Amino acid sequence: MAEVLVQEGETLESALRRFKRKVQQEDIIKEIKRHSYYLKPGEKKRVKAALARKRNRKRKRSDME
User: Fold this and answer.
1) Whole-angstrom Cα distance, residue 22 to residue 19?
2) Are residues 1 and 29 in the same domain?
3) Is 6 in the same domain as 27?
4) 35 pLDDT higher than 90
5) Average pLDDT over residues 50-56
6) Do 43 and 63 share a structural domain?
7) Is the pLDDT assigned to residue 30 strictly greater than 90?
8) Range of 61's domain?
9) Total structural domains in the chain?
10) Could you give the percent of the chain with pLDDT greater than 90?
11) How many helices (H) and strands (E) does the chain have?
C-alpha cells in the first residue's frame, strides 16, 4: 500500500508527485487492471505467449542494430 506523509513546509503538489511515483514503482495500477476482469486459463496462456513473442522480436531487433 503506497503511503506518503506530507512533510513540514512541503507543498501538496510535490507530495502528490511523490505519491504518484510510489504508485508507479509498486505497480499498483497494473495489478488492479489485471484483476479487474477474469481470464480463462487458456486465454491467460495465449496472452502470456503473445507477450513472450513480442519480447523476443524486440530483443532480436535490438541485437541486429
Assistant:
1) 5
2) yes
3) yes
4) no
5) 96
6) yes
7) no
8) 38-65
9) 2
10) 71
11) 3, 0
